[in-house]
Amino acid sequence: MRNRDIERLIRISQKDWHSIVDKLQKNILGITNIDEVHAKIKAILENLKSSLDFAARDIREYAGLPPTKFCYFPYSYPTPKKDPIAEFEKKIEKDFTDLNIKNTKIYQLLCNLQDQKWIKDFWDVVNPTKHDELPPISKRFIQIGDNVKIFGKLKNEGKIIVGDREITEKFEISPHDTIPENIRGPISQNEELYVNAPLLANLEIWLKEITDLLKNIYAEMNSKLEI
Predict the structure, then answer these.
(1) CA–CA distance, 149 with 120 (Å, rounded to integer)
(2) Which of 12, 10, 28, 26 is closest to 151 using CA atoms?
(3) Fewest CB atoms within 10 A around its CB: which of 16, 96, 103, 120?
(4) Can you tell me the distance from the alpha carbon of 169 to that of 166, in angstroms, rounded to the nearest whole number?
(5) Alpha carbons 133 and 187: distance in angstroms, whole number
(6) Which residue intervals of 63-169 are DSSP H helices?
(7) What are the pLDDT digits (tens) for 156-185?
(8) For 204, what's the count of Cα atoms within 13 Å in the CB-facing half-sphere?
(9) Single pTM value for the model
């Protein structure tokens, strides 16, 4: 099985994610090497997608089907013209024949995944990243009163909300729902911040969801992921 390869990819991705968080927390207003952050984000996305595809090949072989390089994780991206569940069933029949009979729990894990928002968000970013370009992390001026998400948080009418608390002072913004220790000075003017909330806020979610999903899948195949 390919679980050892997946473990390596997930560990590298976790390390890269913590490196990104560290850079942004320490110097959110003055990132000097945004290319390095971009490269790490792209690597995380590719590693997570590869991990899903490796698992798909293990599922196929666990179900007693012959190995193939052309077997990919069975997620059916929703489109107006196609029923995602019907498309999912086609993928299962083609690459994972009778999986619902051979292992009902794995089949149900994959089926339940089809309408979850996090994996659609992941696919939204993975495909353009692979074939086009990475969504930019941009620097812009935030005016008091703007609606803008900052690492998944909302700055609205001059307010910054972190978790359940309203912050009225300037501080180093964290991607976590915790109050940073280094609060500095009142917000009395427009601020310059790095923003790309959908990408940065979701990276940690995708790491956790994909790791948990793969742990559950390998447990059903009488194996495990040590991550």
Answers:
(1) 20
(2) 28
(3) 120
(4) 9
(5) 35
(6) 84-95, 99-102, 104-113, 117-131
(7) 344 444 444 444 444 434 333 333 333 333
(8) 13
(9) 0.73
